[in-house]
Amino acid sequence: MDVIRVVLVDDHEVVRRGVAALLDSEDDIEVVGEAGTAESAITRITALQPDVAVLDVRLPDGSGVDVCREVRSRRPELACLMLTSFADDDALFDSVMAGASGYVLKQIHGSDLVGAVRTVASGQSLLDPQTTASMLARLRDQESRKDPLAALSPQERQILDLIGEGLTNRQIGERMFLAEKTVKNYVSNLLGKLDMQRRTQAAALVTRLKAERGERGDLRPW
Questions:
Q1: pTM for the full model?
Q2: In this structure, are residues 54 and 9 in contact, taking their beta carbons and an 8 Å threshold?
Q3: Which of 78, 95, 108, 166 is most deeply packed, by most CB within 10 A?
Q4: What is the C-alpha to C-alpha distance for residues 71 and 50, in angstroms, rounded to an integer?
Q5: Burial of 13: CB neighbours in 10 Å, binned 0-12, 13-18, 19+
Q6: What is the pLDDT of residues 67-95, one digit of tens each?
Q7: In b/e form, how buried is each residue of 65-96, taking b as 16+ CB within 10 angstroms?
Q8: DSSP sequence for the chain
Q9: What are the 4-aspartylphosphate sites (modified residues) in this protein (predicted)?
């Protein structure tokens, strides 16, 4: 039987000792190292090359999430199991984005923690389908909020900006040295890309985006 090598990272020595005693009592698990800070955790994990890192989310000089991201950038095969005292959606999301395989509360039963270590060590995830769906939805929302005008060309962005100022196609053409018919085509194209039917909708979008970004006179990417 292959032994699962584990490094524990928690700033509370009592917690580390308790978890270490629990895991070491299993025939197939061995705690090979411990750390109480983010800096020492990265050093220890890099040197010891465990199969699993059990990481406290909150550390005195950083976070377990940062440690997870750093060590997995060096060893993508490392499984990180986040251990925390608080149910925190933001911490969960950040952990998933950092590449963590699981996220459990310190109130977990000992047998469940042992099972969690075995699960992530085998390459499986502890994230349930509902959590995964929530993470994907949040990712999609962030991507759309990042730049809702991503499909527009620089020329179309500029025309949209002028629509927001209330200019007509003729006035936009004069401002940009374009024929009115050319402007009309641009407007039609950008409305299609934004899934809009009327220029008033586009003008309202410009107003909202500028309010969110702070008035700065254009619609450059976020």
A1: 0.61
A2: yes
A3: 95
A4: 11
A5: exposed
A6: 999 999 999 999 999 988 876 667 777 88
A7: bbbbbbbbeeeeebbbbbbbeeeeeebbbbbb
A8: -PPEEEEEE-S-HHHHHHHHHHHHTSTTEEEEEEESSHHHHHHHHHHH--SEEEEESEETTEEHHHHHHHHHHH-TT-EEEEEESS--HHHHHHHHHHT-SEEEETTS-HHHHHHHHHHHHTT-----HHHHHHHHHHHHHHHHHH-TTTTS-HHHHHHHHHHHTT--HHHHHHHHT--HHHHHHHHHHHHHHTT-S-HHHHHHHHHHHHHHH---SS----
A9: 56
Q: Give the separation between CA 121 and CA 61, rounded to whole angstroms.
A: 27
- Collect all residues with Cβ–Cβ distance below 8 Å to 10 and sequence separation of at least 6: 16, 19, 34, 36, 54, 56, 83
Tokens of 197: 């039917």
Report yes or no: 71 and 96 within 8 Å, Cβ to Cβ: no
Residue 52 and residue 118: Cα distance in Å, rounded?
9
pLDDT digits (tens, 9 = 90+) for 16-49: 999 999 999 999 999 999 999 999 999 999 999 9
Which backbone phi and psi does 61 adopt, to 5 degrees? -115, 20
Integer-rounded Cα radius of gyration of the chain: 26
Q: Is the dihedral of CA 125, 131, 136, 141 positive or negative?
A: negative
- For 176, what's the count of Cα atoms within 13 Å in the CB-facing half-sphere? 25
